[in-house]
Every structure is written in C-alpha cells, then in structure tokens.
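Technical note accompanying the year-one report. For the benefit of new consortium partners, we illustrate the data format agreed upon in the data management plan: each record pairs a sequence with a structure-token string. No post-processing was applied to the example shown here.
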Amino acid sequence: MSPEVLVIGGRGRVGREVLRALQLTPAKVRALVRTPGTLPHSVAGDLGDPASLRAAMDGVERVFFVTPHDPAEQQLGKNVIEAAHDAGVKRLVFASAYHADVTSRLGLSLFVGLMSLLTHYGPKLSVERHVRLAKAMSPVVLMPSNFYQNDELFLGEIRAGVYPQPLGTKGVNRVDCRDIGDAAARALTDGSVDAGGYPLVGPEPALTGPACAAVWAKVLGREVVYDGDLERWYALMADRMHAREREDFRKTYKIFRRMRVAAKPAEIEKCATLLRRPPHSYEAYVETVAKA
C-alpha cells in the first residue's frame, strides 16, 4: 500500500520542493495549511494548535516538517513531535540546519547549548535534539546548507548587474532546495534509508559572494558585481522578508564574514548517496533560473 505522508511547511522554499518530489512517488500526500484549499490535498492545521495537528495526522504514517522563524519555534516543533508520537507515526523527517553530525546524546546536548549561545539556531537545534530522541519514529534529520534559492529574493538586482547577498569572502557551502526535496521524499518513502542525520550540501565545498556573482555574470553574459554590504542587504530585504527571518539571516551572514563554512568530502559523498546522484551544482541552478 502507498504510504500516507503529511508535509508541514509546504508553502516554503523547502516544503514546496518536498511536495514536488513526493508527486513523483506512489505516496498519498497531505499538506498542512492554516487555510484549507490553498494547496492541493491540503488539511487545516496550525503548529500552535496541538489538537489540529493530531487531527491532521490521523492515519498518517510519515511526516515531514520544518519549523518557522518564530519566537515560539521550539514549542511549535515540540507540538509536531508530540502529535506525531500520539498518532503512531513510523517515520519523522525534520529539516534542520547545516552542522557537524553529532550523534551521542550528551554531545548533542552540549552542542545545542553552545550553538544557542553563539548563534540564533538554538531553538531549531533543540527541536532537532527532540526529533533524534524519538527513536520509535525512525527519525531522519536533514541538515541543509545555505540555499541557492535565496538568490531569488533579489533577481531584479542581479538583472541590474549587482549581486547583493552578503555571503562574504571566506566561503560557505550552498545547496539546491530541489535536492532537499528529493532527499526528503526518499527518506519518507524508501524504507532502506536509515534513521539518523544527513548533511545536504552542494558539490562545491564552499562559495564566496564574489564567486556567486561571477557565476551569474558567466551565465547571463554580462557584468554582475558583488556588493557585500550587510546593512544595504538588510535594508533591501525590508519588504521581502518577515522581520524575524530577516534578523536571523543577518546573524547568519555575520558568521559567514568571520569563518569559512565548507562541506567536507565525506558530507558531499553522503549527500550524493542519499540522493542516488550528485547534488546540483550552483552553476546548474543559475542556468535553470536564467532560462526561466
């Protein structure tokens, strides 16, 4: 029988790719939305309403979720985990953030505590810790790096010849959200995928802001210069992001300015193994967007 799958966060950059990838499988898919009918095969629910989550998961065997940029992110994530446990879900897949795969309970607790002090990822990593401890649900944690699709927030500026995303000059790994969707779909539908953490990374260990601008220039056939000014980017995004998300992004970019965040060869290989193919390159992504 085809598995029943619930996707939570299906309207976001990651969730919509998970829904796309699941359409290519035999799975019966539901998408949790606040307003019924806004997505195909949708069911009404709210992360802040545990009763609605339990109702949405009735008969569901597998759940994918991503937590929002929200002051209550940690509690919202725990609501999903508890509802999935109560519903008898057999596979729980969570999209977290890129980091080293810490597997021991003590090590993970210490890591979450440290990251809570140094970054804004504390709530998300705390949710991840609870997911990993939910052994009865064969949990899978996906750990994607910086999204290629973040570029789509400023395509107008790129067309005008400026790449304004302040990625810095140290280098950061980046990944295609299509790869995240494909990886999630396999984890949700293929019983051979083991529980555990999976880094989702692009094939280039790290990309700098100037390197990304150069790729756009090459594909478009005209000059695209890098503008790495963080505050100009912050002002530019004022009407393109929710305030909490914009602030979280700014904190992340400050980290990228101080340190290189590169994927290790073993992480790239593990990502390719889950995808059963090489991850998409950044240039391939840019070519796709440019054609569209």
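Partners are asked to follow this layout when depositing records. The chain is about 45% helix and 15% strand.
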